[in-house]
Structure formats: C-alpha cells, structure tokens
Amino acid sequence: MNRDRGVFEKHLHLFGQGKIFQTCPYFNRLRIVFDMEIVVLRYGHRKKRDDRASMHVALVARALGAQRIIYCGQKDSELEERVKKVTNEWGGNFTIEYFEDWTGFVKSFDGSFVHLTMYGNPVQNKLEEIKTQKKIIVLVGSQKVPGEAYELADYNISVTNQPHSEIAALAVFLDRLQDSKELELNFGGKKTIIPSSMGKKVKVCK
Questions:
Q1: Residues 25-34: what's their mean pLDDT?
Q2: Which among 57, 89, 131, 136 would be 20 to 30 A from 38, CA to CA?
Q3: pLDDT higher than 80, residue 103
Q4: pLDDT tier at 178 (50, 70, 90 boundaries)?
C-alpha cells in the first residue's frame, strides 16, 4: 500500500512539473499532461470584495490545467485554505501562493508573461506562438491593472475586444491554449464525479 501511494505521489509531482507519464494505478484512464508550466497571476485581490471572484479564478485555473495560482493585493488566509481544501478533496497538486510584489515575481519568472485584457491582440492571432512557450504566467486583474503590466507583458491578449468577465477570458484562453485536451484530465482525488445524464453521482475514496 505504501509503495502504491509513493507511485501516486510521484505521478502527481510529475504532473505539477509538466512532465509526461502514461499510466497510474489510481487512474482509470490515460492521463493527459502538458509539457508547459502554467501559472495564473491574480492581480489586486481585495478581501471580502473579491472573495468569490478570486476563488472562481482559482477554480478555473486548477480545473483547466494550470499548476498554481499566485495572487497579490491583500493577503487572504481564508482564500488560501479554501483552495487547498478543494485540491485535497478533488485531487491534483494545484497550489496557491501570495506575493506582495507582483512585478518582482514576474521579472524573476523564467518564462513568458501573458496579460489578458480586452485591449490586447486577439487570442486567435497569437495562440500558435504562445503554444511554443515552456512556461507562462497568465495575469487576470481584479482592481484596475496598472500600465506597467502592459509594458512587462510579452503578450497582451484579448478574448474579444468587448467588455467581459476576466474569469470567462481565463477559461477560454486556457482551453484554446491546450486544444481542449485539459478536459480529459483525471485528478485522482478523494472525490470523483461520475458523469450521468440525470442526477448527481460522486465516488468518494476513503
């Protein structure tokens, strides 16, 4: 049992590092893993006011293939605990971290910086180029994003040039970036939904 658990934890670690593996005894089908590190950066989080929205940014990031979320603004221990609880129950090794200095994090990141903004270049025009990157940060704002973000970004990308939700933009971008393959991920969590045409079925592993 300890040996099997070690194999499982090793595979989760490989997933977090963007490595590729074929099978795992805890997975009931092929696990698709992408050779790209995706980090979501939530700018300007405000406790209470952004509580629900920032949680949804984290949920979308995790479910659609990102390995971690970084947030700046006001430190929020409750937000961190809720994200950790989801990962603990539903699987994977998605993490959340707080950085007070978001520019310092971006400048030290060994990869490309994507800023999602309605004022940017259409995603469909830059997608193939972004897919060639090995590591990317994807910034989504809460408060008004400062001009410095536009200057630091390797790609200012729009998901339509119309007013829209930053959460929707993140979901569309991550899905297109990975050609919808992230929808086949099996996280191997304590809880697993069994898809059905009617009702709710959840498998709980003790």
A1: 39
A2: 89
A3: yes
A4: very high
165 CB neighbour count, 10 Å cutoff: 12
What CATH number has the domain bearing residue 64?
3.40.1280.10
Exposed, middle or buried, 202 (CB in 10 Å: 0-12/13-18/19+)? exposed
Q: Which of 147, 140, 142, 148 is closest to 117 using CA atoms?
A: 140
Alpha helical stretches, state H, the chain: 2-16, 51-63, 77-90, 102-108, 123-130, 147-152, 166-177
Contact 64, 95 (CB under 8 A): no
* C-alpha span between 179 and 157 (Å, rounded): 17
Residues, the chain, total?
206
pTM of the model: 0.82
Which H helix or E strand runs over 204? strand 202-204
3-state SS of 11-35 is HHHHHHCCCCCCCCCCCCCCCCCCC
Instruction: Report pLDDT for 34.
Output: 58
Dihedral over alpha carbons 53, 179, 189, 25 (to 10 degrees): -170
Decide which of 14 and 193 is more confident. 193
The number of domains in the chain is 1
Per-residue pLDDT, 39? 98
Q: Which segments of 91-195 does DSSP mark as H helices, in order?
A: 102-108, 123-130, 147-152, 166-177
Asked whether residue 30 is domain-assigned, the answer is no
**pLDDT value of residue 27:** 38
